[in-house]
Design goal:
Layout lengths: L5 E5 L2 E5 L1 H15 L1 H13 L5 H13 L4 E4 L5 E6 L5 E6 L13 E6 L9 E2 L2 E2 H18 L3 E4 L9 H10 L4 E8 L10 E5 L4 H19 L7 E3 L3 H5 L4 E8 L3 H8 L1 H19 L2 E8 L4 H13 L5 E5 H6 L1 H9 L3 E6 L4 H4 L3 H19 L5 E2 L14 H10 L3 E2 L4 E2 L9 H12 L4 E7 L3 H12 L4 E3 L12
Parallel strand pairs: 6-9, 6-10, 10-13, 11-12, 14-15, 14-20, 14-21, 15-16, 17-18, 19-20
Antiparallel strand pairs: 1-2, 1-3, 4-5, 7-8, 11-13
Helix pairs in contact: 1-2, 2-3, 4-9, 6-9, 10-17, 16-17
Bound molecules: zinc ion (2 copies).
Length: 484
């Protein structure tokens, strides 16, 4: 894999990485070596007229330390650019033209865009300048993302002024997969605080929103900051003009004294970077959740669930009860029309009668299958045992039933997470909690819920909000079942 970064080894130690880190590394190295070297380096920068910044840098190190250093740069790093290190020292490092920053096949390139720079300080309070905090967080974030194996570029590596057009252009020309702008917030309300993420409704709206929601979740988890509502925008130039999913993160308020102090500290900047990086990683590696609803259809409750799923463009799976299908055939048809998967639960939800013997189970199933076929035309192949494949009522017969059903070409699906909503008087807060705690961050989740329970549809939206990092999919015969 070609790297566009610097590879250095010399008296300051060894360095491999991209420019953003290089500056930090260099700053630390310089402060270790002593301030007289800074003065020497600055003099050298001004005195030496050289077409090769790397050779120049090597000379500087040799002059300052009396030791040889090995300095090399990836091909294409031939354009000189001038940067100011936050803190004011002028630095010369090689830049790479945009066409050489293009990613290699198979790489994921993330463009970080620290807002403002140069004359444009952004907002500032009590000596804290937005442009510098944005850059510090970008460096930390770059480091985390590089450790995760992503390729990362910054629109600026130092205190450089860039137009908004240049920022968006770099994102588009390098073929970046994601673009993340970093900013600090300000408000007339001194108490305003927290993380606020903006996304453009004109650029990859759905993906940008999902990216924003996931980053928000992880950044808030990592920092304990207040979670502010996501903001849709038509105006913010960079995120609007980028062609890839993008967002603008206001990591905190410089106008809030307590939050500003945190934002200035390297420890808090690192926590922010960690959360944002984890969010980006979760966005790029989505997990899958299969929402399943048992025991329906019912008139009002199923309709409400379907409305919520439709508004979010989510497809789920409904394991139907034959008796209820006969009562509400139009609802069973609506489930199918709206693209959800239908499975069989049973005809009559009576454990004793159902599990009296293998024959009683098969007879009930056949009745349910016919009812579903008659109402919807669907020949269901998926099914779910009432109570799950192994339960208190079917211990003696479940193996024989499972074998027989498998022989007939049916597939049963248990679950590995549950709202636990089939209890008397469920409380919405408890159902939300159950959903979160039983999911356990698994990569593949089959969630058990019941569309006949009104509390379930009351809190379904909140439940869905808990899982931005999951893609919601319907079950199908191709999906490997989860079986107890
Ligand atoms: Zn800003
Ligand atoms: Zn059931």
């Amino acid at each position: 894999m070609r790297k566009s970064g610097l590879y250095l080894s010399g008296p300051y130690g060894q360095y491999t990485g991209e420019y953003g880190d290089y500056i930090e590394w260099r700053e630390k190295s310089i402060s270790r070596t002593g301030k007289n070297i800074i003065i020497f380096l600055l003099a050298a920068v001004m005195a030496v007229v050289s077409v090769n910044p790397i050779a120049e840098y090597r000379n500087q190190i040799k002059a300052a330390s009396g030791q040889e250093s090995q300095v090399s740069v990836a091909e294409g790093a031939d354009k000189e650019q001038f940067f100011l290190i936050p803190g004011g020292q002028q630095e010369t490092i090689p830049g790479v033209p945009a066409e050489n920053l293009k990613k290699e096949p198979g790489e994921t390139l993330i463009l970080l865009d620290p807002g403002h720079g140069g004359e444009d300080e952004g907002c500032s309070r009590e000596g804290a300048e937005e442009k510098e905090i944005n850059l510090r967080i970008a460096y930390q974030l770059q480091k985390k993302l590089l450790e995760m194996g992503y390729r990362v570029h910054l629109t600026r590596n130092g205190d450089r002024e860039l137009t908004l057009e240049e920022r968006a252009k770099e994102a588009n020309e390098t073929g970046a997969d994601l673009c993340i702008s970093l900013h600090q917030n300000a408000s007339e309300e001194a108490g305003a605080e927290g993380i606020e993420i903006w996304y453009s409704i004109q650029n990859q709206k759905e993906e940008s929103e999902r990216l924003s929601r996931i980053i928000q979740k992880y950044a808030v988890q990592s920092t304990g900051a207040v979670s502010r509502e996501l903001v849709e925008s038509e105006e913010l130039y960079v995120i609007r003009e980028c062609t890839m999913p993008s967002c603008l993160i206001e990591t905190g308020f410089l106008t809030n004294n307590a939050e500003r102090k945190k934002l200035e500290s390297p420890e808090y900047q690192e926590q922010l970077a960690k959360g944002i990086a984890e969010g980006i990683n979760a966005y790029l590696h989505p997990k899958t959740m299969y929402l399943t609803f048992d025991d329906g259809p019912s008139e009002e409750n199923t309709a409400r669930i379907l409305d919520i799923l439709k508004a979010r463009n989510i497809k789920a799976t409904f394991f139907l009860v034959g008796e209820n299908v006969e009562k509400h055939p139009e609802m069973a048809r609506r489930i199918v029309q709206e693209g959800h998967t239908i499975g069989i639960h049973c005809y009559s939800h009576d454990y004793k009668a159902l599990y009296a013997s293998t024959d009683s189970y098969l007879a009930d199933f056949e009745k349910a299958r016919e009812a579903v076929k008659a109402a919807t035309g669907v020949e269901a192949k998926l099914f779910r045992f009432p109570g799950g494949s192994i339960n208190a009522h079917n211990k003696k017969v479940y193996q024989q039933i499972a074998r027989e059903m498998t022989d007939r070409g049916y597939i049963y699906y248990d679950w590995n997470a549950s709202l636990e909503d089939a209890v008397s008087n469920p409380k919405p807060e408890t159902l939300i909690q159950n959903a979160v705690t039983s999911t356990l961050d698994r990569k593949k989740v089959i969630m058990l819920a019941h569309d006949v329970i009104s509390e379930t549809n009351q809190c379904l939206e909140e439940i869905l909000d808990q899982f931005p990092e999951y893609q919601m999919e319907p079950l199908s015969e191709e999906i490997d079942p989860i079986q107890f």
